[in-house]
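Why do we bother with a discrete structure alphabet at all? Because it lets us treat a fold like text: something you can write down, compare, and reason about line by line. To make this less abstract, here is a complete entry for TVP38/TMEM64 family membrane protein. Read it the way you would read a sentence in a foreign language you are learning: slowly, and without expecting to understand everything at once.
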Amino acid sequence: MDGPPRRGDATAGAARARVWLRRARGAVALGWLALASAVLWGVGSGALTSVAELRELLSGLGVLAPVVYTLVGAAEAVFPVVPGSVTVIAGPVLFGPVVGLAAAYCATCLGSAAVFALSRYLGQDLLAARFRAGTVRRWLGRLQDRRFTRWFALGIALPLAPDDLLCCLAGLSRMRWRTFVLLVLLLKPWALVLYTVGVLTVLDRWVPGLTG
């Protein structure tokens, strides 16, 4: 469906947003529980005592490991458990620069599309459920700008832009699905490369061999 959602029953829209938020909170709680369990298991088994051992463990899983990482990374955009920036950095650390960046790219694109679709369905209620009221008021004004598509494209290409918020706003605009997908597919790699290279360069000075 192209274009923003029609203005329907505001009460129904708010109810949908509340249901989504309740499910999101439940998913976040389960995510944290799973993450804590994985960390405890990793420490107990020795897999988390070094990056090299963790990589060796993941390599034994074959293609399943990066696929699961991609799905988890995409879900992070909808049900955030840890900051998305941490998930992006984890890709190259766990799987190497090529496979890791490719998996992070796929995860980011899938997650962005999911947020865009949710915004189309829930409308401004999604913004109210996900972000602070002050943030919503400040950013909603961007939708009135006739150059919103150009502004969105610039934001997607920048490494530190708030991706989830940008995709929510795009879902509220008249941007077509085709336009959204093309912009994300073509521009997001630049942001990922700049961000990961910059952060990993700094981290490698503090933790030598982290990206080796």
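What the structure line is telling us, in plain words: DSSP finds ten helices and no strands in the chain. The longest helix spans residues 10-45.
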